């Protein structure tokens, strides 16, 4: 499909999963690379980060600064404890809200949004980071006691409104920059809109605050590295910024140059974690609580699976620790997370730009054309499209899973929320099918994190976050379905596709 927008070059939309996969995995970056559309969208909030770059030497230089941040040891030892602390804050807040709401619904989107910001702050800046997005809401709740006191029938279905508290300067600036991206998206000229927004004192102040806190975090980390100089292995890395500074120091030592801790790439990548990792994770968790509340059997089975997989926590009547959650062997948990990602459609389209004159399914695509690949299209959320194999690209046909071997969910209703689709019978070492089921992330198509050389860099961190949040929520609360008027599945199209309504109705469970 090709769409024409006023004053803009046409955009080509690819719905077919096989074609999208071919473009992402085999034709990127030579024929299709990251589009200018994305840098136009983000540049006013995030001046220099690899998410906006073409796949060239500068991109590879940025990636080198981030190397090992997604390693299992960094995620387990550094990232997970910081994120767990933030996720637990959300649980504590919801305990209070559940008690006050006394069986009524309340809007959960802001809490999830702020908790996810704290999680990504924790990842980037470590446990001593003093700014919390959720704390003002927790403080505002501290003044409320008892229950809502409203038990009249006419208010039973209406949501309870809770106070939010005021964000501090750093959190407000960060949220302001994220909100500015949403304002710019969809405008006729994103460059012009950024230009106009840049004239406003609010945006200018937000950028100043962002630059100041990013530079301060880099300076603090650089001081630690300098103090430990000569014994760099003794430095206790507590955050992504510590790791990046140490890495820059090592790269500089190897190249015989002075380290540049405050380069545009260092600053850009540090703030890039927040832009790339905040909205995406919070939107996915928001979809997750909706799907779990509306699919009680899935929620109950997940809780049972968690209890069996983490018996020490269950028998000691406590929450599982971060270490226990990451180590949980619960195929159903993996299946639920994967299904939330598939159905939520947090990122509805993946952007690419044609680097050369080329073709998609027999149609000429001139160099410079923006291409959007749907993550919720046929094969993923609806039956597959019929496509003549002779229209496919040479790369598709010559690939191992080429002509005629398209994958889709046609055996399972692609519309349905059904984590079981990700479970397959396990096999013994001789290839014999066994009774047990295992999680198979390749059981069918999904594009939740994109694919190929420009797929989501933070994917492993995202799984850690989703695990920690979903396990703590399901372990601590029963999520009941909300009244139909609060349970719409419509979405708001922004940088991510967020649920328009994200209400929860919680009952605190005895541990
Ligand atoms: C559930 C959470 C998340 C989802 C659904 C998600 C999804 C995506 C998607 C669809 C892309 C584009 C891939 C493509 O164009 O092929 C992307 C790119 C990216 N994501 Fe994520 N993401 C999530 C979490 C995170 C986190 C936690 C971080 C880091 C803190 C992160 C950092 C990035 C970066 C840096 C890119 C750009 C990669 C590149 O251009 O090479 N994401 N993400």
Automatic annotation (TrEMBL):
Is-annotated flag, keyword Amino-acid biosynthesis? no
List the InterPro entries.
Cyt_P450 (IPR001128), Cyt_P450_E_grp-IV (IPR002403), Cyt_P450_sf (IPR036396), Cytochrome_P450_monoxygenase (IPR050121)
Keyword annotations for this protein?
A: Heme, Iron, Metal-binding
Give the family, as the similarity comment puts it.
Belongs to the cytochrome P450 family.
Cofactors: heme
Its recorded name reads Cytochrome P450
Q: Which residues bind heme?
A: 456
Q: Which GO terms describe its molecular function?
A: heme binding; iron ion binding; monooxygenase activity; oxidoreductase activity, acting on paired donors, with incorporation or reduction of molecular oxygen
């Amino acid at each position: 499909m090709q769409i024409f927008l006023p004053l803009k070059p046409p955009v080509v939309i690819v719905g077919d999963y096989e074609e999208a996969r071919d473009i992402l995995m085999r034709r990127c970056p030579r024929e299709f690379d990251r589009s200018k559309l994305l840098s136009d969208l983000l540049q006013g909030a995030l001046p220099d980060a690899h998410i906006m770059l073409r796949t060239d030497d500068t991109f590879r230089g940025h990636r080198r600064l981030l190397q090992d941040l997604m390693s299992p040891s960094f995620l387990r030892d550094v990232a997970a404890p910081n994120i767990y602390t933030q996720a637990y804050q959300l649980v504590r807040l919801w305990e209070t809200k559940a008690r006050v709401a006394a069986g009524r619904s309340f809007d959960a989107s802001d809490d999830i949004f702020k908790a996810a910001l704290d999680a990504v702050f924790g990842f980037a800046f470590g446990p001593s980071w003093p700014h919390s997005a959720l704390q003002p809401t927790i403080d505002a709740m501290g003044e409320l006691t008892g229950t809502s006191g409203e038990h009249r029938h006419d208010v039973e279905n209406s949501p309870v409104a809770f106070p939010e508290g005021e964000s501090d300067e750093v959190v407000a600036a960060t949220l302001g920059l994220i909100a500015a991206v949403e304002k710019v998206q969809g405008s006729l000229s994103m460059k012009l809109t950024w230009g106009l927004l840049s004239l406003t004192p609010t945006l200018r102040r937000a950028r100043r605050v962002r630059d100041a806190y990013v530079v301060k975090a880099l300076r603090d980390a650089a001081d630690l590295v300098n103090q430990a100089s000569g014994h760099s292995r003794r430095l206790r890395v507590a955050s992504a910024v510590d790791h990046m500074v140490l890495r820059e120091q090592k790269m500089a030592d190897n190249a015989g140059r002075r380290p540049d801790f405050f380069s545009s790439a260092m600053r850009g990548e540090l703030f890039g974690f927040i832009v790339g990792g905040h909205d995406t994770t919070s939107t996915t968790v928001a979809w997750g609580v909706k799907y779990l509340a509306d699919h009680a059997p899935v929620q109950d089975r997940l809780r049972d699976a968690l209890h069996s997989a983490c018996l020490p926590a269950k028998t000691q009547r406590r929450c599982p620790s971060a270490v226990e959650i990451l180590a949980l062997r619960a195929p159903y948990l993996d299946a639920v997370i994967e299904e939330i990602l598939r159905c939520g459609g947090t990122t509805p389209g993946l952007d690419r730009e044609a680097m050369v004159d080329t073709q998609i399914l027999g149609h000429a695509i001139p160099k410079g054309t923006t291409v959007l690949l749907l993550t919720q299209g046929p094969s993923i959320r609806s039956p597959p499209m019929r496509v003549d194999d002779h229209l496919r690209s040479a790369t598709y046909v010559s690939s191992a899973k080429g002509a005629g071997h398209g994958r889709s969910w046609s055996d399972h209703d692609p519309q349905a929320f059904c984590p079981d689709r990700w479970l397959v019978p396990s096999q013994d070492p001789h290839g014999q099918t066994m009774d047990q089921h295992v999680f198979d992330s390749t059981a069918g198509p999904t594009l939740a994190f994109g694919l190929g050389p420009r797929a989501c860099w933070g994917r492993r961190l995202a799984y850690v976050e989703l695990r920690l949040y979903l396990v703590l929520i399901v372990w601590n609360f029963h999520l009941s379905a909300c009244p139909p008027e609060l349970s719409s599945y419509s979405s708001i199209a922004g940088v991510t596709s967020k649920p328009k309504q994200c209400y929860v109705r919680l009952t605190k469970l005895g541990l």
